[in-house]
Design a protein that fits this description.
The chain has 213 residues and is α/β, with parallel strands linked by helices. It has nine helices and four strands. α1 (10-24) packs across α2 and α8 (138-155) runs parallel beside α9. The protein starts with 9 loop residues before the first helix and ends in a 10-residue tail after the last strand.
C-alpha cells in the first residue's frame, strides 16, 4: 500500500482505522482507539515517505501500539483473526517476552489451538522470516529461526511441552535443512526445559492439504 501524500497523515488515519475496525468492530470508536490510530498514522507519515507498506506491516504497527497502551486483548483479532485467550496472553500480554511479542506481531509465528490436555501447537512461518530478512544471508535467517524457536519454547508450559511445530516453508531454501534445524533446536530445548518429549516438526502446507513429516 502506498499513500500518495505522505506528509499528510489523514490518509493513513483512514486506512488504519478501517483495518482496525474490521478486526475489533465497535471498539474502534473508542477514544483510546482513535489515539492509537492517530499515533500510528503520524509515525507512518513521518517515516514511510512514499515507500510502499504491506498490510501486515500496518497491522504490526497497530499491534505494537495496542500493546504499549495496555490493550493487547485487541491484538489477536488484528494479526491472526483469533480471539483473546490465555494462550495469546502469554504471547502478547503485559508479561510476554518482548522477543515473542515481536515474532507474533511480524506474523512469523503464532499459536494454534491447544488440545484438551493443554498441549501446544505452534505455526512457524519460515516463508515470512526469510522474506523479511533483506540480506538473504542464510546464517542471519537461521539466527532468526533460532530466536523465534527459543521465544516459543519460553512461552510453553514445561509440564506439557510443545506438542507440534508446523512450519510454512519459504519459496526458496532447503526444506530439509530448515526442518532438521528446527528439530535439533527443539530437541535441545525440550531436554533443557524437561518437556515430556521433543515435539513433532511437520510441514504446514495448507494450500494442497498435505502435511508431510
Amino acid at each position: 500500500m502506498r499513500i500518495p501524500d505522505p506528509v499528510n497523515d489523514l490518509p493513513w488515519r483512514i486506512v488504519l482505522h478501517a483495518r482496525f475496525a474490521r478486526a475489533v468492530g465497535p471498539l474502534a470508536a473508542e477514544p483510546w482507539a482513535a489515539e492509537i490510530v492517530a499515533a500510528a498514522a503520524h509515525y507512518l507519515a513521518e517515516r514511510a515517505g512514499d515507500a510502499p507498506v504491506r498490510d501486515e506491516q500496518l497491522d504490526a504497527l497497530l499491534g505494537a501500539a495496542l500493546c504499549a497502551l495496555g490493550r493487547s486483548e485487541c491484538v489477536p483479532p488484528l494479526i491472526a483473526g483469533s480471539p483473546w485467550n490465555e494462550q495469546w496472553a502469554a504471547v502478547v500480554g503485559a508479561d510476554a517476552s518482548p522477543v515473542l511479542r515481536d515474532v507474533a506481531l511480524r506474523r512469523w509465528a503464532k499459536p494454534a489451538a491447544s488440545d484438551a490436555l493443554g498441549r501446544a501447537t505452534w505455526i512457524l512461518d519460515a516463508r515470512r522470516i526469510f522474506r523479511d530478512e533483506p540480506s538473504g544471508l542464510e546464517i542471519v535467517r537461521f539466527r532468526l529461526l533460532a530466536a523465534a524457536l527459543d521465544a516459543i519454547a519460553a512461552a510453553v508450559r514445561p509440564e506439557t511441552g510443545l506438542e507440534t511445530l508446523a512450519i510454512r516453508p519459504p519459496d526458496n531454501g532447503s526444506r530439509d535443512e530448515i526442518r532438521a534445524f528446527c528439530r535439533t533446536r527443539l530437541a535441545g530445548l525440550a531436554a533443557c526445559r524437561a518437556w515430556p518429549r521433543a515435539p513433532d516438526v511437520v510441514w504446514a502446507e495448507l494450500s494442497d492439504g498435505s502435511n508431510r513429516r
